[in-house]
Amino acid sequence: MPAKSDTPFVTYGEEESAFYFDHIHRVEPFERNNHYHSTYEIYYLISGERHYFIKEKLYLISPGNLVLINKLDIHKSIISGSSEHERVVINFSDAFPGPHSSHLIQGMFGDGQPIIPLQPAEQAQVMQILSKMSQEITAQKEEFESYIQLLLSELLLLTRRFKQHSQSQMAYPDNPLHHKVTDIVKYIHQHYSEKITLDLLSQHFYISPYYLSHIFKEITGFTIISYVNLTRIREAQRLLTETRMKIIDIAAVTGFESLTHFDRTFKKTLNMTASRYRKLYQWPETK
């Protein structure tokens, strides 16, 4: 009998584009080095079970759970027991749902309640919308993108309703290790501009370097150094787009010890140089 392999059903667009849709059944372990983006994300788990680290907390995700990820929030889906699972991911920009639906986004992402466990009837409604999106992407008939916009608006409207009536957030129960890792993540967010090493964190939080490294990777899915670098690069992106600071100064204020290290890390994370990123995404000056 042939070994099982990952089965992609439908993929459309890129995560940083106006709209991205990806439906896949995974059986192999899957890792990303960088996971945050300038678009919103809706993650829907169809089957299997996942751990999901979002911003500062770890959640257990079960079939029928909707996950809402805000722009630029670091997040990662992690194996829970078996690697096998089926899910749909949608990424979209502020503008994609259209001006008449932009109000649906407000207050729904980044409010500290990212998980919505759906009832069976709600799951059926979501799957119906996702199936229609998949069909439109596959057929690509005339004005299919306009129809996808309408379907996304419908999904956002239903999600807002589901969220209003949802109580459980599926976060892990009180656990000293999870609290400790949350404290470490908060420390990194506050001190990314300073020197941060495994030894320094170990001394600050009274944990051995080996144990700290182990529990951080287990709970977040990231190594300490990769999480620190992601936090720094995320802030560098903001400064590149919102200010006219020199790149060498941005490297310094985001905690990189040299411009060379900054350039290498930025390119590895975003597949482009910082100067190229600035040209593509810097906000126009207001007059």
From TrEMBL:
Pfam families: AraC_binding, HTH_18
InterPro entries: AraC-bd, Homeodomain-like_sf, HTH-like, HTH_AraC, HTH_AraC-typ_CS, RmlC-like_jellyroll
UniProt entry keywords in alphabetical sequence: DNA-binding, Transcription, Transcription regulation
Every HTH araC/xylS-type domain range: 182-280
Highest rank taxon of the organism: Bacteria
Molecular function, one GO term: sequence-specific DNA binding
Gene3D superfamilies in the record: Homeodomain-like, Jelly Rolls
Transmembrane annotation, as ranges: none
UniProt-listed PANTHER family: ARAC-FAMILY TRANSCRIPTIONAL REGULATOR, HTH-TYPE TRANSCRIPTIONAL ACTIVATOR RHAS
Protein name in UniProt: AraC family transcriptional regulator
